[in-house]
Amino acid sequence: MPQDSIPSVSRTLADFVAASSWAEVEAQSLEARRSILNFFATALGSARDPVVVAAMRTLSPFSGAATATVIGHSERMDAMCAAFLNAVSANLLDFDDTHPDTIIHPAAPVAAPVLALAETRGMTGREVLTAFILGVDVECRIGNSVSPRHYARGWHVTSTCGIFGAAAACAKLLGLPAEGIANAIGIAASQSAGNVENLPSAAKNVSVGNAARNGLFAALLAQQGYEAAPRAIEGPLGWARTMGDEPDIARLLDGLGKTWEIAKNTYKPYPAGIVFHSVIDASLVLRERIGRQVDQIESVTVQGSALLLARGDRPVNNERDARVSIHHGVACGLLLGAAGVAEFARETVVRPDIARLRQKVRGQLDDQMPDGAARVTLRLASGEVFTETVISPRGSQAAPLADRDIEAKLREGVRTGRSDWDADRVIEAVWRLDAVDDIAGFMQSLRPPPASRHAASN
Hints:
Number of helices: 23
Number of strands: 6
Radius of gyration: 22 Å
Strand order of the largest sheet: 4-3-5-6
CATH architecture of the largest domain: Orthogonal Bundle
Structural class: alpha+beta
């Protein structure tokens, strides 16, 4: 069959997005609300972080009409600035949701622009959920088509694929026809960027923020008649091959409209790279097993896959390094008995006792261990040896977080993020998102009233 007679990836996905209504996605609504609740939890946890505040200062003089909420703040900004900031804050602590097949963090690049656009245009909760579910499907399916090679080459898959989900979701919200949605996806292909080398720095969050903002921008350009090449993703000089991949189109389209990528979503109990969660779980169990003998630990060996060691067997120079370190994960579990936001904060990372224990940890390759699994073995000064293996960590598909765990995560995010937002109000509102008639009113209800803001500033 001639290539020109085969529908392009952009158009096939666009036809699916354009034809899908609330009736087709309603069964995924609960998982979508769990994801959006987790999105608020992580964004609130980072809202006052210096990285977010600096980005607000940078963008503020250039913001247009203040129509969209910046999560955790009383100020509003224009939709594109708010989308950027909320995606950055949701992703900043490495605490956001994860699609296991690709390691994409689906919500940050899609929920941020969808909520900002819907607030600006006064759309409904069902419209938001429909667009969000479809956007997650698009970003993860495109990610499926190039994984795992894409990430292994150094492309930050949340950023590079998240923009496609943002573009498709925003185009859906704007009511664009299939042709317009296809153009939005194609325009996004010209803006896809982000590299893994930048993970230990705030530059990583810039690319996640850009995925959200530029995905919205792509949809708005398509609404104004901008066009893109039909095969901007899979063409000979298209997105996938430019980035070094031959896209697996069959995998991208398999089960389209019948199986949903959001159904695979997982949520982190720890603000660290997901491949390190088994290390933390194993270390927490070992702490219980050795009782008061933590100070007698002589050495610790972490065995795992090549991915685990490539990503986590590294020196720890700052809190960002700590979030992607097998050494710090062990220290949190064994010495602190916890691995929350405080355990990955700078004050903890630089503690001398933590640094000493990190120095006792070494990584060891075990080709038989699946990605995301870990075996932690410690030796005490007495010569006793203790070993714990975790294949499916807490928060994985095999051991998922419950709704109450995500609610607790949001409450903790409000506390550690020093926000004046009311956690219970956010939780209650997100669970009833499918019944909301006006997202502008919904977002306004989450922001503290003016009197509370004034009191909080004194």
